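Q: I'm writing up a methods section and want to include an example of the input and output format. Could you take the sequence below and give the corresponding predicted structure tokens, formatted cleanly so I can copy it straight into the document?
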Amino acid sequence: MTTPAPLRYDPMDPSFTKDPHPLLARFREESPVYHWEQGGGYIFFRYRDCMALLRESRLGVDPTLGAGFPPELKSAFPEFAALRENDLFMVPPAAHARLRKLLNPTFGPRAVEAHRPKVKAIIAALLDKLPKEGEVDISTEFTRQYPVRVIASILNIPSDHVPEFVAFAEALISTIMPGLSPEQFAACMPIISRGMAIVRAVIADRRANPMPNDLTTELINACDEQDRLSDAELVSLVAGLLVGGTDTTYHGTNQAILTLLQHPEQLAILRDDPSLARNAFDETLRFNIFGRVPMVRYATESFAYGDVHLERGRPVFLFLMSAFRDPEYLADANTYDIRRQHTGTHWFGLGPHFCLGASLARMEAEIALQSLFARYPTIEIAGEPVYGMHPIMRTMDQFPIRVSASA
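A: Here is the clean output for your methods example:
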């Protein structure tokens, strides 16, 4: 009988990337609170702890605890500092509440439904470029393409900027990785600077030339008792939409396709009832969310949680990917069931920082899954997905499938 290896969390371990759940199950049982040296804080693996700490008022999302970026960083990277200090995660609670009040009507379920025809057209056009049968890298040729094209289209940003926006989104996400080296951080800055320049140009053009049914115009006009979004808030918000509106949908759709193909009985259920596509996306995010590292919060004051002392200013990590496979959350948490009726969508966050673009992401993924499986009655995995080295996400740089438009 072999002795299990000592528990060690290494987010870049290839075996963890491919299937993190055996290790996460061990952590829940053997070490549900684990001090992660690389991240500089404690990781919580159990559902009860993650949900309690998500609701904990002494944890915040701002790593600077309201102090802003240090002067040396502002001096070296002023654009980046301004971008982050005005985003929804960094602004003080009062400003966050004001921004969400202005923005929530634009991103509610009813509002995003107005964009459904545009989303369907973009997805159909991408699928039309794929072969009727043969091998397809679905990650590079479809799932990576459609979310950023949708966001660019809704914001009416020229499509030739799409590759730059993909790079912009990935660079922004990379900068939030705890333990990122100064060299890695600095390498992201030219990409971010180029993305911000495009965003500013689009905003300036739309101020001069407002457009109907255009999200950029709606954001420029968003106001409450004459309290409009500032230029800095607009740039940061559009940048945030490019990140949140592309990566979650891209990686989530990849995982949904993979998980459905690994569970053919569930794919058969979806083919029989395509209206379950949105449910399938939610169940995938519950069953196998695409993160490599846990959600991070910061202690705004020192306090004790159980036997653990959480020190002011230190990160606190909540491993939701583990929490949603905890038997305390669901007795059959290791069962993938697209007919499962969820009482919430905690994988999009909780409370004030619930994902602003959740409704849009869910609608996009619903249409993408419905359209893909309607286009191809026969789909199968053609090879193991090739995972990249992104520091935050378990990205599928390649995901080969074999398709046929014939039954």
